[in-house]
Amino acid sequence: MSKLDEKKIAGAFQGKSVILTGAAGGLGSCMAKILAPYWRSALLLDLNEPGLQSVASAVRGVTKGEVVVRKADLTDEKSIAQATSELPPGLAHPDVLINNAGISIMSLAEKQPLADYRKMMEVNYFAVIALIGKFLPGMLERGDGRLITIASGSGVLANYGGAGYCGSKFAIVGYMEALRQELAGTGVRTNTVLLPTVMTEFHQRVLDGEFGDMAKGLPTITPQVAAEELLTQAARNTEVISFTPTLKAGLLANGVAPSILRLAMSVNGYLLNKKRGRAKKGLLSLKG
Q: Which of 13, 136, 156, 193 could form a disulfide bond with 38, CB atoms 3.0-4.6 angstroms apart?
């Protein structure tokens, strides 16, 4: 992985106005602290208002720019509209939009309520396209802007117990793929981040829960390392960012030998199902 390239980050974000969702903790707060010395102004959004205030207090100590914090429920269209209305001039037409907020609710598909699927789609997909829809026209008019979307490796390589989450992330990865084509030559850049497993409270809950056996073998990185890497790669204008050897190998296998990769993933699923008493047939049933 790359080291934090402060020169590149300064070149990409110096004097820019930034909107960042999911800013109250984890990856979002790390990104805010990295970008604070460079931005001209920032709008930090999150449902966690005390966390927002804490991050705002920290970044105000290192930035010369204006910092606005607003509580936003990204499952609610009206809340999004209210949180992004009546902004200071620079933030009303931001240079950079970072869609970082996300939610994952792990469950076997047959056990997951429809409400869980809807909630994940609202935050991971519809909130992202709502914010892009609001701020992209201004970027196109200026012929300049940047859209950074924090997706997931699970948006290209599905995982056991994550049908709802993977569906929402596959959706946003597909949206960004199409959007990148639409924006070619307009001056608006896109960066889609295929985030690996990051050591957060959510990941710890997975380790402690029903799918802990699946999660224990996954390589992880810290939010700080993830933030440094993705912002460095974004500043270098890497359009699709993936930055762990395991994920890169999976993406390569998916491109070169997708049938072999899918068989390997099916075997993994079979072994997990056998452990749970769900497998009714043998391994040979996976062929064909």
A: 13
